[in-house]
Inverse folding.
């Protein structure tokens, strides 16, 4: 548990950090350190240079707009988000992530940049239609969460960019949400994690966003499930029919804890349960 | 004073330092001139070492020395407990060397070591050692390893067989099975577990060139045994020139009984570099490969019974995976501590057990909390439920019909399970099994269970209830039984205690047992407070250092109270006798007229003529006036060899709910009624039960080492090896019955392992009960959601 030697710098401002990254594209960015440091200590990851952005005040804080949209700085910790969020299912979901000590240190920006394929947060962000604000020394751009997560530990983040902020729009009127997960018994990561957000208009499901994590190479939006729900009456049959599409056209992971068949079946069960729970909360 | 003596639930005195960060663990040891060692371990499960180039590593900053196996001259590590008996003494023993020389047999076997000025430099230098490997095919499954065509690990062990050991009555058992009204057969896997102490292992080795003496600090359960093994069996150093010290230990669970290669490495390295101390501390991931594993049995069970559920015969064949080379007592665990326990608390008249010990390309396997007895209990308690299921009789009733009645003790199974090959015997000391079971059933509300099942099914849950009515064997062991030539670990197993009484009447107990979290400093103080009429605060307990502690065999096998505790009692008895004799001298009375009441020694009929223990200690310590022939001081040493083992028992009940759609198992209640005889400190007993239950439940539901077919450990960290977590356990519901052991005057039996032994089959039986509607009658552990789901699916035919 001793990392190989590396250089260390702690920029004082975002601009300074961006210049440092531009100067050394192979450097690793350190935020809360709860994914990167274990990898370095186990020598499963190596770097010659660490750039510690963990104390940049510009990247802290949550902001809520009058229209119900929200944004949070990349250095917002899980614990801070759990404390501040107005969304019950986000709080419940994140309370299932790791443990108190990790949640006190781990940051939302670090989590999305690391893009563990079984991380809980990406499914929530995709279901929330959130966007990730990325900035380099040259430009700033906004990428939808749906497009950001591309594969295991692969994202749209370029080597010279930092995650600056995560934004989400307001939820539709009367929407209900749920995050449900089948946790891997050792790590607690999702073998299947499903976030569903639904809203009804005149008895019909008008809005449906469903995203899964832990199932495939990256968290993904289950559009076929959403299509199955949209316009339906939300009956048990309709939900079951939609949930059956949870892994359609997806390559499903297989490991010692959950093989492909089991994970596929659980994706369906948990999708159904998440939708049912979300619908029960929708007004 | 009485509130502090035997039976009082005193808070553990050692917890103050442990929970405030003031314990002194191995890695807390700082010495001037300290160097640090890191060990390069094999990435292959089976490979030849063509060559090792350490030149680049030796040139790295801070590197003091680099070692490979060929530079270290000592014997391989000892194997101290052959299977013996019918298997004879093994001539195919292969044990690790300090570092591997020719080849490696599992991932993690050490091949080179670096000593450097800092831990970081040692670690960095490892990356610069170049080993030219020739990988070989590997085998990890014990049964598969014995089959034709399997990769062969050792030339002296054809088909990878270490031993083929039997116990019991083959003819009688075969006849009983042939005549039985029903016979049930089942294959059972008791999966491999990885011990996970909070503190990883470590050592500090120091060679003193001034005195030519060695000192090693080791996180070991058995410092005295290690001194003997290192000195006489490995390094050839005179025993009196090595001192072994175990500092505070953060858990062991059996994994620190053994002689490890790192002991030899740190001592050799310290001498080689001129006497600077060498520290090695295992990393967690390293420990998953380099510290022993436990269990790993594949068993074939045949059980015969009458139509009424009376078991008439039990035949078990077990493949015991012992790893790539043998650990110190690896062969003794699946033989003596397993095969001999396979009649449990039952009147099974015919038992036969065959155990085949097997080499595979895996980490060595040795005792892990319970050590053989959990495996035996698992086979038996599954057998009882299989009989119940086959005959349609309530599992409770099947047990009732097979229990040994309370008047059967001392009891020896007629198949000869308890008889060592030399003829020495142990016998079940005492028991009364039905009251413990009935108490547990009452707490569980067993008679209402049908209604509970119906209620759960309305919620889409399958409720199951499972029992385990275990018997355990503690207090290892009578020396002539366990140490019988050719049938034991070739050593005795008595225990020792020395009591020093200072002039002021304060008492120091030094003892050969070695706590790893059991609270011995509290427990033994309570024993001495009772025996000598002292305040517990007037007693301190020392252990762990071969200098100044009488030889002892250490702590494992739930033996410290019943064997070590009795050594302390015996030493106290000697002191009491001497104090009484001296009190007679002080009071000018006949020694026969001295009455002892706590710390007061008075003349019979003259209660005002009294001397206290403190007054006596002071006077006899000064020795100004001594009767003829009496030596000053009250100090005494005693050795205690137990005449028999002690046999705790109890009933554990698990209630689970299974999610039919996902296979997830929720342990909703766990009831444990344990009978460990008298309790010295009930709070410590309760703590031992809690920890044991967590480990036993962990095996049933979550834990399990997973190797791929190349011998790579896939469950090689806590990210993939699922330990039990408090958040996943219910509040344990504990109760007791008390059947004192007649074996020792304390009446104690032992409790360190009972929780682990009893709980595992209770949980499995509960899950199988929950799935009974599917016709499922057995599932192998761990009962992960995937495994349970798949079992249901295969019955549904929903899955190919």
């Amino acid at each position: 548990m001793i990392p190989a030697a590396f250089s260390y710098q702690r920029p004082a401002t975002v601009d300074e950090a961006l210049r440092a990254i531009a100067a050394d594209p192979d450097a690793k960015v350190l935020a809360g350190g709860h994914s990167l440091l274990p990898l370095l200590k186990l020598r499963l990851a190596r770097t010659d240079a660490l750039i510690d952005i963990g104390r940049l005040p510009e990247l802290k804080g949550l902001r809520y707009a009058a229209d119900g949209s929200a944004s949070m700085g990349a250095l917002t910790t899980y614990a801070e988000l759990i404390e501040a969020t107005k969304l019950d299912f986000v709080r419940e979901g994140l309370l299932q992530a790791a443990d108190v000590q990790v949640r006190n240190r781990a940051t939302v920006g670090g989590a999305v940049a690391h893009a563990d394929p079984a991380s809980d947060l990406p499914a929530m962000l995709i279901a929330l239609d959130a966007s990730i604000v990325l900035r380099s020394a040259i430009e700033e751009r906004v990428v939808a969460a749906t497009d950001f997560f591309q594969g295991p530990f692969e994202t749209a983040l370029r080597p010279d960019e930092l995650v600056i902020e995560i934004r989400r729009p307001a939820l539709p009127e009367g929407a209900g949400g749920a995050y449900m997960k089948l946790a891997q018994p050792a790590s607690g990561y999702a073998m299947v994690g499903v976030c569903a957000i639904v809203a009804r208009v005149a008895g019909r499901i008008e809005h449906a966003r469903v995203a899964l994590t832990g199932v495939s190479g990256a968290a993904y939006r289950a559009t076929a499930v959403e299509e199955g729900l949209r316009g339906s009456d939300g009956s048990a049959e309709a939900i079951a029919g939609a949930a059956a599409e949870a892994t359609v056209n997806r390559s499903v992971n297989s490991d010692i804890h959950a093989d492909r068949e089991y994970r596929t079946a659980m994706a369906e069960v948990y999708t159904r349960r998440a939708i049912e729970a979300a619908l029960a909360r929708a007004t | 004073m009485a509130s502090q003596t035997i039976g009082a639930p005193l808070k553990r005195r050692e917890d103050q330092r442990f929970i405030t960060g003031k314990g002194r663990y191995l890695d807390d040891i700082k010495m001037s001139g300290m160097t640090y060692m890191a060990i390069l371990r094999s990435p292959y499960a089976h490979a030849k070492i063509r060559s090792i180039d350490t030149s680049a590593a030796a040139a790295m900053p801070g590197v003091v020395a680099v070692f490979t196996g060929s530079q270290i001259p000592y014997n391989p590590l000892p194997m101290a407990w052959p299977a013996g008996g019918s298997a004879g003494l093994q001539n195919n023993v292969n044990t690790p060397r300090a570092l591997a020389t020719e080849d490696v047999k599992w991932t993690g076997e050490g091949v080179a070591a670096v000593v450097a000025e800092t831990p970081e430099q040692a670690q960095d230098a490892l990356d610069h050692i170049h080993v030219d490997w020739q990988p070989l095919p590997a085998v990890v499954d014990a049964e598969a390893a014995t089959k034709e065509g399997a990769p062969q690990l050792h030339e002296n062990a054809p088909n990878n067989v270490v031993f083929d050991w039997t116990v019991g009555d083959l003819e009688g058992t075969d006849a009983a099975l042939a005549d039985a009204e029903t016979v049930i057969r089942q294959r059972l896997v008791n999966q491999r577990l990885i011990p996970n102490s909070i503190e990883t292992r470590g050592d500090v080795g120091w060679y003193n060139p001034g005195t030519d003496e060695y000192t090693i600090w080791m996180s070991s359960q058995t410092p005295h045994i290690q001194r003997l093994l290192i000195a006489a069996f490995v390094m050839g150093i005179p025993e009196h020139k090595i001192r072994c010290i175990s500092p505070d230990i953060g858990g062991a669970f059996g994994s620190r009984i053994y002689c490890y290669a790192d002991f030899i490495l740190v001592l050799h390295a310290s001498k080689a570099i001129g006497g600077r101390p060498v520290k090695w501390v295992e990393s967690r991931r390293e420990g998953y490969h380099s510290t022993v594993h436990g269990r790993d049995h594949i068993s074939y069970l045949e059980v015969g019974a009458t139509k009424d559920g009376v078991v008439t015969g039990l035949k078990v064949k077990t493949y015991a995976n012992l790893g790539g080379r043998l650990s110190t007592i690896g062969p003794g665990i699946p033989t003596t501590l397993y095969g001999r326990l396979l009649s449990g608390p039952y009147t099974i008249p015919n038992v036969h057990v065959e155990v085949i010990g097997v080499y595979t390309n895996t980490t060595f396997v040795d005792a892990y909390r319970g050590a053989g007895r959990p495996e035996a209990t698992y086979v038996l308690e599954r057998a009882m439920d299989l009989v119940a299921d086959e005959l349609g009789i309530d599992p409770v009733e099947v047990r009732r019909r097979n229990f040994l009645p309370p008047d059967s003790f001392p009891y020896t199974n007629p198949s000869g399970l308890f008889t060592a090959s030399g003829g020495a015997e142990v016998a079940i000391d005492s028991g009364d099994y039905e009251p413990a079971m009935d108490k547990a059933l009452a707490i569980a509300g067993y008679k209402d269970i049908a209604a509970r099942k119906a209620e759960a099914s309305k919620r889409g849950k399958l409720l199951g209830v499972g029992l385990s009515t275990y018997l355990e064997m503690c207090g290892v062991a009578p020396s002539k039984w366990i140490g019988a030539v050719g049938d034991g670990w070739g050593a005795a197993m008595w225990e020792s205690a020395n009591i020093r009484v200072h002039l002021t009447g304060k008492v120091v107990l030094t003892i050969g047992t070695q706590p790893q979290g059991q609270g011995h400093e509290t427990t033994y103080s309570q024993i001495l407070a009772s025996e000598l009429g002292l305040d517990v605060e007037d007693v301190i307990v020392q252990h762990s250092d071969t200098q100044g502690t009488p030889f002892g065999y250490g702590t494992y096998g739930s033996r410290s109270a019943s064997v070590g505790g009795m050594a302390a009692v015996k030493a106290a008895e000697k002191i009491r006798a001497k104090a009484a004799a001296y009190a007679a001298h002080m009071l000018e009375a006949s020694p026969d007229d001295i009455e002892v009441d706590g710390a007061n020694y008075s003349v019979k009929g003259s209660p005002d003529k009294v001397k206290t223990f403190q007054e006596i200690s002071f006077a006899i310590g000064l020795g100004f006036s001594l009767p003829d022939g009496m030596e000053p001081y009250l100090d005494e040493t005693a050795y205690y060899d137990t005449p028999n083992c002690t046999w705790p028992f109890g009933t554990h009940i698990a209630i689970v709910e299974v999610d039919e759609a996902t296979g997830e198992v929720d342990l909703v209640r766990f009831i444990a009624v344990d009978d460990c005889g008298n309790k010295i400190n009930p709070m410590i007993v309760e703590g031992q039960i809690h920890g044991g239950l967590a480990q036993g439940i962990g095996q049933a539901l979550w834990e399990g080492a997973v190797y791929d077919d190349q011998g790579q450990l896939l469950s090689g960290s806590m990210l993939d090896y699922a330990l039990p977590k408090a958040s996943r356990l219910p509040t344990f519901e504990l109760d007791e019955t008390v059947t004192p052991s007649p074996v020792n005057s304390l009446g104690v039996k032992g409790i360190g392992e009972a929780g682990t032994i009893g709980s595992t089959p209770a949980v499995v039986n509960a899950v199988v009960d929950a799935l009974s509607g599917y016709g499922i009658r057995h599932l192998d552990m761990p009962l992960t959601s995937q495994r349970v789901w798949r079992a249901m699916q295969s019955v549904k035919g929903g899955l190919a």
